Amino acid sequence: MLITYYLNSLGCAYRKIEKPIIQPESSAISVSSIIDLIGERNNKIKNIRGIAKINIISSNSTQRLKEAIVVNGDSHIRLESLNIAGQPSIIMVSDGNAVTIYNMNENRFYKGDASSEVLHKITGIYLSPFEIANLLIGRHPIENKRIEDMHLTKENRVYILRIQLSGSKSYNEMQFEPNNLSIITIKRYDDTGKVIKFITFSDYKKVGEYLFPFKRQILLPPKGLSMTVEYTEIEINTEIEESVFNLTIPEDAEEIQIN
After folding, report:
1. How confident is the model at residue 32 (pLDDT cuts 50, 70, 90)?
2. For the chain, what is the domain count?
């Protein structure tokens, strides 16, 4: 299950959700301008905290969760699953190197490296905390990748940027809405041309000065996993204390080390 950080206890005041602002379509779009824009947007949003509804569908289960989320930078994440009373029942924290998950109902906590393999063993979700943080914050890392080409499709006029992974035949395709160049989809293909990861971003709204996708979905076909995240409250670039990412565990809790 996905785990989240309960923000109500922090006394967060959330910004009013505004209607999206559509900018005129640019007449001169290039690969370099797209890459610069992605980098600029990645750097603008430093942190988020909010409440989201999350649906997770796997090969053997379906989960509907209410989550509270704190993400700071590309390494610190704290998530809490909220019960029907709005109280945290499971907490996850990660600093990018290690991950700790505490199940309050079982009084048991799990520790391991911040890898997709470890998180899959604990939660059934084959994503690393870093990948989860990028998904939740809407960040699109493109470092260490070689740009192959970009073209504008004729069917629906969206821009498609193809990003070839260095030293591999696998590649990503990113689709951009033509008016404001917001990212619509990201597809990851393996060496044989099969889609192994498919992410969509939608319901863009202005939050202060930021254009933010309130809904995103990730599909991992080889893993039989689908996860949809839909924010109901969001706050961007606010002060977050380091103590938020500390996790206090009772002394009598059972520890399970995951390798």
Report:
1. confident
2. 1
